[in-house]
């Protein structure tokens, strides 16, 4: 794999070729990745996989017309053909009044912030297949040792390193490297057709930050056993409490509704909500691309703009749309540094390390006054309408009775409208930064539960 500087230079070189061949403007992405994945099942090695990839994506502009192409063939002849093909395609594309590179005066200048994303930068080495195998086996062994676990889907461990580089024809060129490590276990409990499964995993930029295999495995086993012999819920209005594992999906619906494309296309249930109260006053949602060794940290966005910590929801108020340059131009606003870019196509919008700030009470207090409710630990299906905010998803979890979490329940649906759900949401104080998007335990009043 090339170094970050070499990746940056490769992206810059293809941009220069495109300009010399007749493009009015261009940008390019170089992305490379190596990964090693090991899985075990029932104590035996099941699979070993290693992959290496490198791709180059080029976007060119001829006036207001543009085209994007990508290739994994990085030979000189292939890159020459890539440039010629991109320009020919752009000349035949329809005009787009909003297309173009990010504003030159907004580009990041100077050295990118140091985010400590590359575990190998200080002379470390990739873990051996044997070390990953042992970690995966230890996680699965711990899960299978939990009383009541009857079968296993396996344990897995992975290590990867990637390089991402961006160059533009109006003065930006930078790159960074990031490592990633993962460890998981998934097991079953119960017998025959009544078997249930659950899992646990840990992800980190630095290998030393992974949770211990024994903790991961034990958590997976205990979660599976707790779900055995689920009962059924009565249908009707109910208070719903979301486990942090699934509550983070609510922030995904928020981000989809405030992204530039949803606003410019008028396909958002929050279309008129900027500057208004959309959550309860105790709710704040933050995006922090600068968190050291964060799972989604990045030194710049997909168009070369600087990034910074941002309050998206503050005291319940919607503070901003999330805009790339094209949607910002269409709305007469400024891009927000949330552009995301792959090797093909135009930029979209993405957050980085997104989280909802912790509330003021522990989860036990949050549920203490719930006479009849449900604690959701699994969501199924994607019955969410981004235009209207209507929300309906299959779920499983545990009954809440007289302020206590009791037996498992399954095969029910929770429904509401995201506008109402956001306004009736209360966060607990148990926020942990385990994933790319993190929330504490969440309580939502007034949802409708329907038993399957």
From TrEMBL:
<dbReference type="InterPro" id="IPR045570">
    <property type="entry name" value="Metalloprtase-TldD/E_cen_dom"/>
</dbReference>
<dbReference type="InterPro" id="IPR002510">
    <property type="entry name" value="Metalloprtase-TldD/E_N"/>
</dbReference>
<protein>
    <submittedName>
        <fullName>Metallopeptidase TldD-related protein</fullName>
    </submittedName>
</protein>
<dbReference type="InterPro" id="IPR036059">
    <property type="entry name" value="TldD/PmbA_sf"/>
</dbReference>
<feature type="domain" description="Metalloprotease TldD/E C-terminal">
    <location>
        <begin position="235"/>
        <end position="450"/>
    </location>
</feature>
<dbReference type="InterPro" id="IPR035068">
    <property type="entry name" value="TldD/PmbA_N"/>
</dbReference>
<comment type="similarity">
    <text>Belongs to the peptidase U62 family.</text>
</comment>
<feature type="domain" description="Metalloprotease TldD/E N-terminal">
    <location>
        <begin position="26"/>
        <end position="90"/>
    </location>
</feature>
<dbReference type="Pfam" id="PF19289">
    <property type="entry name" value="PmbA_TldD_3rd"/>
</dbReference>
<dbReference type="InterPro" id="IPR047657">
    <property type="entry name" value="PmbA"/>
</dbReference>
<dbReference type="Pfam" id="PF01523">
    <property type="entry name" value="PmbA_TldD_1st"/>
</dbReference>
<feature type="domain" description="Metalloprotease TldD/E central">
    <location>
        <begin position="125"/>
        <end position="227"/>
    </location>
</feature>
<dbReference type="Pfam" id="PF19290">
    <property type="entry name" value="PmbA_TldD_2nd"/>
</dbReference>
<dbReference type="InterPro" id="IPR045569">
    <property type="entry name" value="Metalloprtase-TldD/E_C"/>
</dbReference>
């Amino acid at each position: 794999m090339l170094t970050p500087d070499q990746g940056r230079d490769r992206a810059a070189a293809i941009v220069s070729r495109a300009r010399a061949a007749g493009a009015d403007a261009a940008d390019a992405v170089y992305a490379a990745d190596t990964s090693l994945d090991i899985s075990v099942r029932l104590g035996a090695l099941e699979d070993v996989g290693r992959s290496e990839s490198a791709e180059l994506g080029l976007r060119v502009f001829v006036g207001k017309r543009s085209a994007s192409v990508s290739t994994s063939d990085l030979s000189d002849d292939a890159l020459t053909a890539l440039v010629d093909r991109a320009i020919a395609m752009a000349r035949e594309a329809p005009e787009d009044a909003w297309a173009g590179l990010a504003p030159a005066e907004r580009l990041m200048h100077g050295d990118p912030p140091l985010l400590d994303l590359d575990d190998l930068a200080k002379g470390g080495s990739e873990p051996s297949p044997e070390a990953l195998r042992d970690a995966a086996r230890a996680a699965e062994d711990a899960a299978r040792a939990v009383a009541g676990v009857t079968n296993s889907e396996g344990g897995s461990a992975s290590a990867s390193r990637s390089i991402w580089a961006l160059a533009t024809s109006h003065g930006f060129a930078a790159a960074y490297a990031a490592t990633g490590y993962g460890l998981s276990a998934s097991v079953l409990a119960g017998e025959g057709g009544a078997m249930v499964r659950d899992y646990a995993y840990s992800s980190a930029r630095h290998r030393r930050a992974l949770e211990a295999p024994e903790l991961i495995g034990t958590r997976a086993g205990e979660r599976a056993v707790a779900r055995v012999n689920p009962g059924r819920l009565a249908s009707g209005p109910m208070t719903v409490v979301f486990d942090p594992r699934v509550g983070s999906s609510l922030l995904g619906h928020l981000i989809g509704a405030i992204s530039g494309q949803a606003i410019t296309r008028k396909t958002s249930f929050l279309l008129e909500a900027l500057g208004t109260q959309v959550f309860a006053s105790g709710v704040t949602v933050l995006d922090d691309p600068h968190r050291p060794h964060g799972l989604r940290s990045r030194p710049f966005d997909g168009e070369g703009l600087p990034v910074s910590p941002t309050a998206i929801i503050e005291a319940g108020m919607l503070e901003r749309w999330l805009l790339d340059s094209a949607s910002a131009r269409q709305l007469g606003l400024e891009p927000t540094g949330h552009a995301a870019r792959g090797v093909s196509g135009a930029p979209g919008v993405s957050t980085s390390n997104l989280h909802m700030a912790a509330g003021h009470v522990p989860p036990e207090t949050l549920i203490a006054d719930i006479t009849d409710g449900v604690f959701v630990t699994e969501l199924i299906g994607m019955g969410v309408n981004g235009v209207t905010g209507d929300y309906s998803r299959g779920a499983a979890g545990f009954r809440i009775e007289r302020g206590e979490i009791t037996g498992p329940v399954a095969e029910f649906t929770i429904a509401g409208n995201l506008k109402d759900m956001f306004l009736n949401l209360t966060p607990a104080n148990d926020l942990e930064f385990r994933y790319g998007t993190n929330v504490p335990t969440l309580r939502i009043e007034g949802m409708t539960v329907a038993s399957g």
